[in-house]
Amino acid sequence: MRGWILPPLENSDFVAHMEQVLDVYKEAYNKDYPVVCMDESPKQLIKETRIPIKMKKGKEKKEDYEYERCGVANIFMANEPLAGKRYVKITEEKKKTDWAKFIKEIADKHYPQAQKIRLVMDNYGTHKPAALYEAFKPKEAKRIWDRFEFIYTPKHGSWLNMAEIELHVLMHQCLNRRIDEIGTMREEANAWQKHRNNKNAIINWQFKTENARIKLKRLYPSINA
Predict the structure, then answer these.
(1) Which residues of 154-181 are buried (b: 16+ CB within 10 A; e: fewer)?
(2) pTM above 0.90, yes or no
(3) Per-position b or e across 52-74, b if 16+ CB within 10 A of its CB
(4) Which of 163, 208, 182, 205 is nearest to 90 (CA)?
(5) What DSSP designation does 26 have?
(6) pLDDT given for residue 53 in this prediction
(7) Are 126 and 120 within 8 A, CB to CB?
(8) CA 185, CA 174: separation in Å to the nearest integer?
(9) pLDDT of residue 58
(10) Is 33:115 a contact under the CB 8 Å cutoff?
(11) What residue segments make up the domains of the chain, in order of their start?
């Protein structure tokens, strides 16, 4: 998980977006208006050049420091914190159209009955409605767009995105070793997803607006009234 990178003092744009996200997080569960968080991260595909020594009792597994790079995969993560559900998709590339197709999957495959999906995500250049029009015909692009309310975390505020927490768990529990084929990575990520969803593992988010106004007071503009 990326560390906290805070903006300069008195950043009204940051606090406005932050408070919007925190307001969404405090809402009660509503299946018709689910709050879903989305994030993505690259993952290097790495091939062993020598056979590792397997772990034995009292001894750790040993890997040679040399390895072969086999390209980079991109991991998309969507999670619904209050429902304890997450959905992983691994692609060969990180393009606007890849994001658009993942968004379509969220709408049509995972939340087909929802009236409006409230999607929290980082403000990347690829995470824009325009990407839908690059991936689909206008009528379809607009249909998908209308299924969502996009809620962006502020710049330097990726830590406000709960999907980042899920990505960290995935990397630690499932993808924390050398994997050289994207097919293997997909199989293992799918198995992890199924296992974690069956556990209904939720995220207990504790940071609220009142906490922000105290702990991050320096980010709020000074008002002399």
Answers:
(1) beebbbbbbbbbbbebbeeebbeeebbe
(2) no
(3) eeeeeeeeeeeeeeeeeeeeebb
(4) 182
(5) T
(6) 47
(7) no
(8) 9
(9) 60
(10) yes
(11) 12-49+64-210
Cα 66 from Cα 53, distance rounded (Å): 14
DSSP structure string for 36-91: EEEEEEEEEEEEESSPPBPPBTTB--B--S-EEEEEEEEEEEEEETTTTEEEEEEE
| Neighbouring C-alpha atoms within 13 Å toward the C-beta of 165 | 17
Q: How far apart are CA 10 and CA 35, in angstroms?
A: 29
> Distance between CA atoms of 15 and 17, rounded to whole angstroms?
6
Token pair in block for residue 84: 């304890």
Domain 12-49+64-210 = CATH 3.30.420.10: yes
Distances (CA, A) of 217 to 6, 10, 153, 198: 12, 9, 18, 40
Q: Any residues with CB less than 8 A from the CB of 193 and at least 6 apart, and which?
A: 86, 87, 88
| Token pair belonging to 135 | 């991936």
Query: Tell me: the pLDDT tens digits for 177-189?
Result: 778 889 998 999 9
Q: C-alpha 97: how far from its chain's center?
A: 17
**Encoded tokens for 82:** 């209050």
Q: Which two tokens stand for residue 23?
A: 């307001």
The residue behind tokens 């106004």 is 213
Cα–Cα distance for residue pair 208/210, rounded to 1 Å: 5
